[in-house]
Write a structure and sequence with these properties.
alpha/beta, about 40% helix, 15 helices, 8-stranded parallel beta barrel, two-stranded antiparallel sheet, globular, 2 domains, TIM Barrel
Amino acid sequence: MKNITIHNKTLPIPSFFQVLNYGGGAGDKTRELVYAYLSENIPALLNYYYINNEYTHVFQSPYFNNILSFNTIGDALNYVKQQIITKDGSFYKKVDIQPCDFNKKVILLDTGSSNIVKYVAKECNYNIEKFKTKIVEHAINYYNFANRLKFDMVVAFDLGGKYTFKDNEANNLNLQTFYTQLNNAEINHLLLKETIKYLKHNQKFYPYVLATVHGDTPSNYEIYTKEILKLENIFEYNFFGFALGGIASSKNIDSSWYDGIEFSKNKKVKDATLPARAISIVHNIVGNRYIHALGCGGYPNIPLNYYCGASSFDAASPARRVGDGNILSTKYIFSPKIEIPPHAKFSKYFVGGYNSDNSPREENFDYIPLLDVDNNLTLCGCTACNQIKSISDLKTLYSLQANNAEAFYYARQLMNIHAISQHRKLCQIISLYNSMKDFYNSNPNELNYALLSIYNQIMSKKDIC
């Protein structure tokens, strides 16, 4: 595995970033910090909107009210974790919680800009011209925040993508009208230019900066990437690398991304095609510079991402699949299926992947309801699996919700970290091979064969490498 050094910290290439969204929800989001010692050597991505309490939101934590008083973001997270344990008591009391120094993690800051856009739009009374001025001010505040807290890396401020509407946004006619009038390409270009001006003026800016790339078609993605390089030349400033946005979801995507690609019946492979092609386009233009694929670290994506040129990626899917479970399901985790009501939804457990000794698992990759996981399934040997003796132990913890909610949350965090560890393990495995073909030849299965087919088709296209 290749490594790079960022502020005296080692970042393997490729790397999977764990999404730590404390402040973006309750329950599991809080416990992610408590049990972070189980994933201490895995880099993390934080969301600016959730941890900067200047933006009022539902789950904001009072422990971040004075966040700028800390020397580093690691110090701030160390403090918050301690408050969660000592003041809130939000941990499983039968577990000896180990220390975790967040300063040892490589931490990447992303904006959560889709939430910020709606905040600023309302602040400007949905006036487009006022918005252009205000959004630049918020971008500068974002960079000052990242620099003050010494984040290791930061994604350049942009408008982001909008895949879902929440908080009654769909019924906000002013906001919906504003979105239709917003020229994202124009404002993202403005933000990019103002970012370079800021960085040129602040030569000692601490975080490594990733320029964001956008485009609704492959040709526009190429044009946008070249525009970044053009601005670098004009201002004589080079970003550390690039963060690819707008490719984490295939919803409402332009069909040209799939031109000339023949798919197998495996839906997971089709979902992995969009980010892989975007990565290839950018890599073909920028060469071996650092590329992070935002939100594109789903397990099947990882080999395609890496061999198409990505250095790192993140995904919230491990935490989301754990969140698929509801409290009702805890009462039926040991029940026959015939007795389970249809509205009981179980948290999902990651199966497949690799054992801690790098040997492949027998199961095909999937997230399956915890109810359906064999009690005798051999554990993989990751840090989370080492906390229990069997799947039956995990189910028992899950079942205790009614009498001990912290046991339930602990079970879900073990599932979350197990999945995250599998993503990291796959990164380690693929780094051992020089090509997608070599990886497949040593790790033949249906999924990898389908991924190899897509990879070969992407590489054969004339508009990319």
